């Protein structure tokens, strides 16, 4: 693969992280921040893939698998936390209705 293709892909990848970082910082809910973190993890994986393609080495593949597993576990933890939070809020609202 020509070097200029990897350079252009790296520039596009770098520029596309700007809105993702904005969503992580300014996201109004925890789900917006979680989606931003997942997207940033995807961009890190893509950067590692570009590095692997540029250097013709395979040692970054193990790191890519580790980051993918960590991201999956993190996403499941956030989803579980948010579902518990929504359940407790719904329970609080239903308790208020019963008392009226």
UniProtKB/TrEMBL annotation:
Main location: membrane
InterPro entries reported for this sequence: MrpF/PhaF-like
GO molecular function: sodium:proton antiporter activity
This protein's UniProt keywords: Cell membrane, Membrane, Transmembrane, Transmembrane helix, Transport
GO CC annotations on file: plasma membrane
Topology class, membrane: Multi-pass membrane protein
Domain of life: Bacteria
Positions of transmembrane segments: 6-25, 37-54, 60-82
Subcellular location: Cell membrane
Family listed: Belongs to the CPA3 antiporters (TC 2.A.63) subunit F family.
Annotated protein name in UniProt: Multicomponent Na+:H+ antiporter subunit F
Organism: Helcobacillus massiliensis
């Amino acid at each position: 693969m020509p070097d200029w293709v990897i350079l252009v892909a790296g520039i596009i990848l770098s520029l596309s992280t700007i809105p993702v970082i904005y969503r992580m910082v300014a996201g109004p809910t925890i789900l917006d921040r979680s989606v931003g973190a997942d997207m940033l993890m995807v961009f890190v994986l893509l950067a590692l893939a570009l590095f692997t393609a540029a250097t013709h080495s395979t040692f970054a593949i193990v790191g890519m698998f580790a980051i993918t597993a960590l991201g999956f576990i993190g996403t499941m933890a956030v989803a579980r936390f948010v579902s518990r939070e929504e359940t407790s809020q719904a329970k609080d609202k239903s308790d208020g209705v019963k008392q009226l």
